[in-house]
Write a structure and sequence with these properties.
The protein is an alpha+beta fold. It has one domain. The protein is built from three helices and four strands, in the order E-E-H-H-E-E-H. The protein has a four-stranded mixed sheet, covered by helices on one side. Strand 1 and strand 2 form a beta hairpin. Helix 1 packs antiparallel against helix 2. The longest helix has 18 residues. It is globular and about 40 Å long. The two termini are 14 Å apart.
Length: 92
């Protein structure tokens, strides 16, 4: 799966990490729904760290389409609430 972190780049993330990505995505939705900025920051930080840490960074020249686009790491709760709702960014 190809995950783009807006303003940063793309990463290839193993299917083995999809359950954890989905768990964190769902937790981000819950934090947004609750209006809990501190919890959103914590969970979204973990989500970004997982993509950076376990994903393989793709070269800027790689034009592979992204399966998921995460907001930039400094996204506000208000902005994130527009992206993290319903099933979140990762359906499933």
């Amino acid at each position: 799966m190809i995950v783009r972190i807006a303003t940063e780049g793309q990463y290839e993330v193993s299917d083995d990490d999809l359950d954890e990505l989905n768990r964190l995505d769902n937790a981000a939705v819950d934090a947004c729904d609750a209006g809990d900025d501190a919890e959103f920051r914590r969970v979204f930080g973990e989500l970004v760290a997982l993509v950076r840490g376990k994903g393989r960074a793709l070269a800027d020249e790689d034009l592979t389409g992204s399966d998921i686009i995460l907001p930039p790491p400094d996204v506000s709760l208000a902005q994130a609430s527009e992206a993290f709702h319903g099933e979140g960014l990762i359906p499933g």
